[in-house]
Amino acid sequence: MLVERYENNPIITPSDVPPSRDDYEVVGAFNPAATIFNDEILLLLRVAERPKDKTDNEQVAPILNPETGELEHFRLKNNDSRITDIPDSRSFYVNGEMMLTSISHLRIARSKDGFNFTVDPAPAVFPKMPYETYGLEDPRITKIENLYYITYKVVSDKGICTGLLTTEDFIHFNRKGIIFCPENIDVVLFPERIGDKFWALTRPVPRYIGPRGIWIASSPDCINWGGHQPLVLPREGMFDDGKTGGSCVPIKTDDGWLEIYHASDTDDKYCLATVLLDLQNPSKVIARAKRPLMEPQAPYEIRGFYGNVVFSCGAIEKDDSVLIYYGASDEFTAVAKTSISSILSTF
Asked: N or C: which end of the chain has fewer CB within 10 A?
């Protein structure tokens, strides 16, 4: 067994998270970033919530008005001619443009042992800016020197981008703005400068030509990025022949940078896998997994808001183990334990 799922998974469910307002309900608490701060393991959850008063014959999209700071509800009946598609419960299309049925913010959960978490009663970071009007999603936390850098998806009617936050105390968050334009997502920062540069795994999303896979880029200041090149692309006939994207902050080992990435096949079944990158030149792949590290197996991974998904945004090294925190079925947060040797055995 490559990973050991915690017996009390999922560790955080929507019912564990108080909504940000009384007239909303939480439908997802998942895809958390993970770090260690003040001797605690902190998870930065993506919390998706929606209005309670939605009826079965309508679609409702909660949208931030950045001028007032208030959430407004865009409502249409299901038989409205402007609705061109309702693919699932997460979204609907109006005249060909996607609308989201929930809006996400970032919420902190805290633990001493890495398994039992207490969720903060209020959001840590809530949509505020014009580029965040549809929500904040899928953060990753990287500590570089004495500062914590948080990359996160920002969603608005202008597109899906990657934004950057910094914090020293997980109380005050400094927005640095958009660092990757639409649509470049799943951005993960390396935990140290390499050759005096910041490095990031990115995931551009070509619409017409080219695969959806992991690229790499570098920056002198973590704001202005260049040197973009493909790195870990889908492999035909393999478990990751659909899409690949960065998941966890790379782990530094004697053998290289160990990256846990997410992948899907052509049937959109998600898994976690690994790749080993050169310590001095992370744009060089040393080895890549021949088999998945983890696939959907447990009921909470197979059935949920969007089933057949394990999707990680953070891992922690603790007591000679690696704790992988992951979203299950776009609804729950779960944890699995593995080791560096187990991960290396997949190559």
From this structure: N
Place of tokens 């910041």: 198
- Residue 81, exposed/middle/buried by CB under 10 A (0-12, 13-18, 19+)? exposed
Q: pLDDT tens digits, residue range 156-202?
A: 999 999 999 999 999 999 999 999 999 999 999 999 999 999 999 99
Say what the pLDDT of residue 1 is.
76
**Tokens 């009921």 — which residue?**
299
Range of the domain at 36: 4-344
The dihedral formed by the CA atoms of 264, 267, 268 and 269, expressed in degrees to the nearest 10: -70
d(CA 310, CA 297): 9
Q: Which residue has the tokens 């930065």?
A: 44
- Domains: count for the chain: 1
The answer to whether the CB of 288 falls within 8 A of the CB of 347 is yes
Contacts of 146 (CB under 8 A, 6+ apart): 168
Question: Residue 168 maps to which CATH number?
Answer: 2.115.10.20
Sequence-distant (6+) residues with CB within 8 A of 178 are 131, 154, 161, 162, 163, 164
Nearest 5°: the CA angle 66, 71, 74 is 110
Token duo for residue 118: 């207490």
What's the CA gap between 218 and 333, in Å, rounded?
Answer: 31
* DSSP alpha helix (H) spans, the chain: 299-302, 340-344
Best CA proximity match to 41, nearest among 132, 126, 143: 143
Q: Which residues of the chain have pLDDT under 50?
A: none
What is d(CA 208, CA 330) in angstroms, rounded to the nearest whole number?
26
- Tell me what percent of the chain is helix, strand and coil, each rounded to the nearest 5: 5, 55, 40
Q: Measured between alpha carbons, how far is 189 from 243 in angstroms, rounded to an integer?
A: 20
Q: What pLDDT is recorded for position 318?
A: 85
